[in-house]
Amino acid sequence: MVKKILLGIVICIFFLVVGILISIPLVNNYEASLVSKELAKIPLPPETQFVEAVYKAGKLVGNGNGMQYFGAILIKSELPLYEIDEYYLQYRKNDWSYIVEKQSGSEIKEVEHGKLEFNEIHDVNIIDTYYIVYSWGESDFPLADLDIRGH
Fold it and tell me: What average pLDDT does range 105-131 have in this prediction?
């Protein structure tokens, strides 16, 4: 009887640890998705169309350890870069939010480690009308650094 109880306790602890380890990447992905959703909620500048939103969590740039949260939207506009950047300046909270750059091709170059790309860029002849608006996010999740992707 005691062996069955101990086995039950060991099995419960095993599933608890596995459950926690599985949930950590899911929570980190959710945190990154919030960065992308925040970008997508902002009204677009005039003469601009929303194309796509993407996000990623992990060690995305630089060296060392730690989770990073990246969110981006792809927009299509006939406006010049400086006008779009000026528009998003009113929403910028810090040096790492609402950054606007021209997007050439589907690959997102701001993410150095791993691959992140837009799926909706089709016509390379008009690529100069696409812009990426991106932000780096933060999280208060206390177990975030237990995600292997942050190392």
Answer: 83
- Mean pLDDT for 12-18 is 88
Measure the CA–CA gap between 16 and 122, rounded to whole angstroms: 45
In angstroms, the CA 39 to CA 37 distance is 5
Query: Is the CB of residue 32 less than 8 Å from the CB of residue 140?
Result: no
CA angle at 40 for the pair 35 and 146, rounded to the nearest 5°: 15
Q: How far apart are CA 26 and CA 39, in angstroms?
A: 20
Whole-structure pTM value? 0.88
CA separation for the pair 61, 78 (Å, rounded): 31
Query: How much is the pLDDT for 95?
Result: 93
Residue in the block written with tokens 């177990």 = 143
What is the DSSP code (8-state) at residue 107? B
pLDDT of residue 125: 59
Residue written as token pair 């095993």: 14
